[in-house]
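anyone else get weird line breaks when pasting these?? whatever heres mine. first is seq + tokens for prot A
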Amino acid sequence: MNEPHQKQKQAVALRYDPLKEAAPKVIAKGRGYVADELIARAKEHSIPLQEDESLIELLSQLEMNQVIPEELYEVVAEIFAYIYQVDQHRS
């Protein structure tokens, strides 16, 4: 009997420096083991994580160092606002 195939975990890392960049861009991405490593490194460095399967699917289609498309600005802005709030509570 075949077991159902589990979907591989995916992870995408974004960076945004408003003084240097017009919009956030993809700085790392991966599936399976690579995704696990990205998540582990983020946790090691206390980088907040946001789980959104639909957004990950869209972002994973982008190339490395590619700026996110304008259609994703609003949802990514909400995530960065959330991260900012988390950082403020840690201080």
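and prot B, same format (seq, then tokens)
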Amino acid sequence: MVKKTTSKKGNLGAVVGLGVGIAAASVAAYLLFGPDGEKNRKKVVGWTVKMKGEIIEKFEKVKEVTEPIYQEIVDEVSKKYSKLKSIDKEELEAVVGDLKKNWKKIIKEAKPKKK
């Protein structure tokens, strides 16, 4: 009879993936429903939603979201959008600035609440 063994390492990957997914969802929720959510929702234009979605997708692919990784992902995605003629460069800079400025608030919201 073959004995089945389970590895704790296999479950760790799922836990890390879940944590990254929660962090990405927290980023999106904060941007749209946080203290400046109403203002952010009013600003939302089709390309900003798509850009933020791409940023969130990239978050889900990394093991841990740190500030340098966050800044790098935002820069990488914004570089793609800066090449599009249909996007106002000042508006793009404003959106990127807001994303970068809100790192501390986003990470604070993503951390589990203490009871």
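btw re prot B: Confidence is low (pLDDT under 50) at residues 9-18. The helical segments are 8-33, 37-43, 46-61, 67-82, 89-101, 103-110.
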